[in-house]
Structure formats: structure tokens, C-alpha cells
Automatic annotation (TrEMBL):
Keywords: Membrane, Transmembrane, Transmembrane helix. The keyword Transmembrane applies. InterPro entries: Uncharacterised_TMEM39. The chain crosses the membrane at residues 36-58, 118-138, 158-180, 266-286, 292-313. It is a multi-pass membrane protein. This is Anoctamin. PANTHER family: FI21814P1 (PTHR12995). It comes from the Eukaryota. The keyword Nucleotide-binding does not apply. It is found in: Membrane. Its main location: membrane. Belongs to the TMEM39 family.
């Protein structure tokens, strides 16, 4: 394969060199005619032949080895899609299995939105701050080396601020009020469990109390105690609105989901605190800087964060 590539490149170079030698000291019409002959009659048919041969071989491989074809199809599989908030409604059910399935779906979608927001923040900072430094000219148009002063400290600080700003903008866009309400409604039906001490053995050798084993198809009331197969005991703790529990005892995903979404304002409060801390940090950077271009950059970023904080505060008041 390497030898064929070398021969192909060598042959192409010889064809180009031959045409250039023939067209030397010729008229413009002759040079144009030789160029058409070079590309239309020689190079284009050869390239078409090579590409056709490659595609034919590739199709035969996919036909003869279907497992490889499956791998290729999986490699180009589209990324997972987010939930369409216009067509998704909360399933108000008393079936604990359905409640846990709904929570698992919402939790997966929540993680997906967080990942995309993080990617948006990091990619925005990289493309807007670090990537332009690659195109900084270190030589003049005459080829003379020149020294370009790059403030790496300011560049790093600005990258962090831009990343956090882009993340907050994107996460606010991906988590509107109706989505937070959907998460809260599911968390209300889910409930949670608090781990407690197991039954103690009395002086007579009998246990003071014996919790019943946990049943996946059972919907528990607030305050009930269950025991898992490994001996751990839990007490049900429902939400203030609905005093039932459908969560699985000891499941970290269910505990995280109830902690984040059990109260309607937990996530929005966290977003407001994060945005306020970001604005305070930018104001502190603005006080310390003396360069006019840094001041303009920080003022523009603070303006965007002020608008976002106002929007979050409005959502907090109306939620």
C-alpha cells in the first residue's frame, strides 16, 4: 500500500512536470489546452478509478463481515436526544415501578443536559480564548521573527469566566421552569429513605421490633420501616405534599434526585447563588484590572450575567 502511494505520487509528479515542460514558452491557448488534458483525461479518470476501487472493496468487506458493519453503524449512531418538553407530561401514578421508571428517565435526561451544558461552556471558552492564540503571528510579512506579548494569567482568568458564563447561559436555557416543575412532581411521588439502626436483641433473646422486608411493588407510607436482604434497615420519608415513598432503599440515584428536586426551588436557588458568585468574582476582577481592554471585556460579561441573574430571580419569585 505504501509503495502504491509512492508510485502514485511519483507518477502524478511526473505528469505535472511533463505538462509543465511541454507548456513552456507556449501560448496561453496551448497552456490552457494542456491543463484541460492533464486534469480531464489523465488525473480525473485515475482518481475516479482509485475511489471506485476503494468503495467496491469497502462494500465487499461490509457484506462479507456483517459484524463489522454493525460496529460501523453503531459508530455513526446519532447522540441521545433530550426530552421534548412540549410533548412530555408527568405520569401521576400510584404504581411504584412506573414511578421509578419515570425518575430513571428524567435523571438520565438531567445528566445529559448537564453534560451538554458543561461541553458548551468548555468549548466556548476554548474556541473564543485559547484557539485565537494559535493564529498569533510570530513573524512579520518579511519573515522577521517578532515577540508577541501574551498575558497568560489574564487569558486563564478570562477563560474560566467565559466558561462559567456560557455554562450558566446554556443550563438556564435547557432547564426552564416547566422542566423543573416536571422534576419536582416526580420527586414528590418518589420520596426517599433514611437509614436507621437494625433491630436490637433484648435480654430475652427476642427482637424489640422486626421491620418487614422491602417489596419493589409496594408503595410505602411515611414512617414505615423496611429491611433489605443485606440487613440494612430504612425508614420511609415522603415529601411534604405526598406522604408516600416509591424509591428503592439505598439507591444513590434516587437519593440524589430527591435531594435536588424534592423541593421546588432547590435547583433554581443553586443557579441564583452560582450566578451571584460569578458576578461578584467578575466585579472583583474589574476592581483589580487597569487595562482598558480588560475593563471592556469584563463589563460586557457582567452585563450578560446581570441579565441572566434577573431572569433567574424572576423565575425564583414566580416558582
Amino acid at each position: 500500500m505504501e509503495s502504491d502511494k509512492v508510485l502514485l505520487e511519483d507518477g502524478e509528479f511526473r505528469i505535472t512536470e511533463l505538462m509543465a515542460t511541454i507548456a513552456l514558452d507556449k501560448s496561453t491557448f496551448v497552456q490552457s489546452t494542456l491543463t484541460v488534458i492533464e486534469y480531464a483525461i489523465v488525473k480525473t479518470p485515475l482518481m475516479t478509478l482509485i475511489i471506485t476501487s476503494f468503495l467496491f472493496s469497502f462494500s465487499r468487506i461490509c457484506h462479507d463481515f456483517p459484524f463489522n458493519s454493525v460496529l460501523i453503524e453503531r459508530a455513526v449512531e446519532p447522540p441521545p436526544a433530550q426530552l421534548d418538553l412540549d410533548s412530555v407530561l408527568h405520569m401521576c401514578s400510584c404504581n411504584p415501578v412506573q414511578i421509578r421508571e419515570e425518575v430513571s428517565l428524567l435523571l438520565e435526561d438531567l445528566y445529559l443536559r448537564l453534560k451538554r451544558s458543561l461541553f458548551a461552556g468548555v468549548s466556548t471558552a476554548f474556541l473564543s480564548i485559547f484557539l485565537p492564540c494559535v493564529f498569533v503571528p510570530y513573524k512579520t510579512s518579511l519573515g522577521v521573527p517578532q515577540k508577541v506579548l501574551v498575558d497568560e494569567t489574564w487569558e486563564s482568568e478570562l477563560c474560566i469566566v467565559v466558561a462559567f458564563t456560557a455554562f450558566s447561559l446554556y443550563i438556564t436555557y435547557l432547564m426552564p421552569l416547566n422542566y423543573l416543575d416536571l422534576l419536582h412532581r416526580s420527586a414528590v411521588h418518589l420520596g426517599t429513605w433514611d437509614q436507621i439502626e437494625g433491630p436490637k436483641i433484648g435480654q430475652t433473646g427476642q427482637t424489640n421490633w422486626a421491620p418487614s422486608p422491602w417489596v419493589a411493588q409496594c408503595l410505602y407510607s411515611d414512617g414505615e420501616t423496611v429491611q433489605m436482604p443485606d440487613g440494612r434497615c430504612y425508614r420511609a420519608r415522603g415529601s411534604a405534599v405526598l406522604r408516600t415513598v416509591a424509591a428503592e432503599p439505598g439507591c444513590p440515584d434516587h437519593d440524589k434526585f430527591f435531594m435536588l428536586c424534592g423541593r421546588p426551588c432547590t435547583i433554581i436557588n443553586g443557579m441564583c447563588i452560582f450566578e451571584g458568585a460569578l458576578i461578584v468574582t467578575q466585579f472583583w476582577m474589574l476592581v483589580l484590572t487597569i487595562d482598558w481592554q480588560h475593563i471592556v471585556t469584563l463589563v460586557l460579561l457582567m452585563f450578560a450575567n446581570y441579565l441572566l441573574l434577573a431572569k433567574l430571580f424572576k423565575d425564583r419569585v414566580s416558582s
